Amino acid sequence: MNEAFEKINIADCLVIITLAAALILAIFYGMNELAMSIASGLLGYIGGSVKSAATKREDK
User: Fold this and answer.
1) What is the rounded CA–CA span in Å between residue 1 and residue 4?
2) Which of 19, 25, 6, 5 is nearest to 47 (CA)?
3) 1 or 9: which carries more pLDDT confidence?
4) Could you tell me the maximum CA-CA distance found in the chain, to the nearest angstrom?
5) What's the pTM?
6) Which of 22, 18, 46 is nearest to 34 (CA)?
7) More confident residue, 4 or 17
8) Which helix (H) or strand (E) holds 26?
9) Residue 48 pLDDT > 50, yes or no?
10) Average pLDDT of the chain to the nearest whole number
């Protein structure tokens, strides 16, 4: 049961929170191109971190 919960990676959480805040501010100030770039970067970062976490779990 303890294996279901992994330790939270502080660096990943900090990057995701910062990018999400920047995305909200870009949308609020009407910077559509910047918001689109931040959103694609955020999704790519989340996808990459989930993929690497899944491969680490399979290695164990």
Assistant:
1) 6
2) 19
3) 9
4) 46
5) 0.75
6) 22
7) 17
8) helix 10-28
9) yes
10) 85
Q: What is the DSSP letter of 39?
A: H
Enclosing H/E stretch for 52: helix 32-59
Give dist(CA 17, CA 19) in Å, integer.
6
CA pair distance 49, 42, nearest whole angstrom: 11
- Judged by DSSP in three states, 46 sits in helix
Q: Are 26 and 38 in contact (CB under 8 A)?
A: yes
> What residue type is assigned to position 33 of the chain?
E
pLDDT digits (tens, 9 = 90+) for 10-27: 888 899 999 999 999 999
The count of C-alpha atoms lying within 13 angstroms of the C-alpha of 3, restricted to the half-sphere facing its C-beta, is 4
